[in-house]
Amino acid sequence: MKKIILCILAIVVAYAFSTVHNDTFSKKALSKKLITPENTEISFKKILKKHSGKVTVIEVWASWCGDCVKAMPNVKEMQTNHPNVDYVFISMDKAFDKWQAGIEKHELKGDHYWATDGMKGAFGKSINLDWIPRYIILDKKGKIVIYRAIETDFAKIDEQLKKLE
């Protein structure tokens, strides 16, 4: 009986954490520094400010990530279907040159940044990163409307972008 109760409790807790939704980023996340393609630092807060007033899709990805690569055609289709949306790509690559090569290889259109300490690093922890690719959708006011979408959620992302445009 105890095992059944513990299993049910574990499922409820896992479900609760999987549906966590934030509508703003934490101060910790906003203060994190990322690297630009010019190899300079910029805070996540400044990146978001740059896209203020625009619907924005943030994709957290890495060139070594098989699921990220498989999702690229869907990302390109999303960009074609929603050309007025801003796209921000944050890489979890392990090296600057691998990140740059990934951008070029996949012809990613948008703004690019690199979290130098990877998925388990400070930036990843500050946004509760547990999987890549990860998509975060912001409305024109910068409010998070989708906090956690993955490569299987493109229909949900498309539906949300249609509402926001």
Structure characterization notes:
- 44% of the residues lie in helices and 20% in strands.
- It has 165 residues and is an alpha/beta fold.
- The protein is globular.
- The chain has a 5-stranded mixed beta sheet. The chain has a two-stranded antiparallel sheet with strand order 1-2.
- It has 7 helices and 7 strands.
- 25% of the residues are buried.
- The N and C termini lie far apart (51 Å).
- It has helices at 2-18, 27-31, 44-50, 66-81, 96-106, 122-126, 154-164; strands at residues 33-35, 41-43, 56-61, 86-91, 111-114, 134-138, 144-149.
Rg for CA atoms: 17 Å
Low-confidence blocks of residues: 5-20
Query: Which strand-content bin applies to the residues?
Result: 15-25%
Fraction of residues in helices? 40-55%
Q: Which tags fit this structure?
A:
5-stranded mixed beta sheet; alpha/beta; globular; 7 helices; single chain; two-stranded antiparallel sheet; 165 residues
Blueprint of the fold:
Layout (H helix, E strand, L loop, with lengths): L1 H17 L8 H5 L1 E3 L5 E3 H7 L5 E6 L4 H16 L4 E6 L4 H11 L4 E4 L7 H5 L7 E5 L5 E6 L4 H11 L1
Parallel strand pairs: 3-4, 4-5
Antiparallel strand pairs: 1-2, 3-6, 6-7
Quick synopsis:
This protein is α/β, with parallel strands linked by helices and 165 residues long. The chain has helices spanning 2-18, 27-31, 44-50, 66-81, 96-106, 122-126, 154-164; strands at residues 33-35, 41-43, 56-61, 86-91, 111-114, 134-138, 144-149.
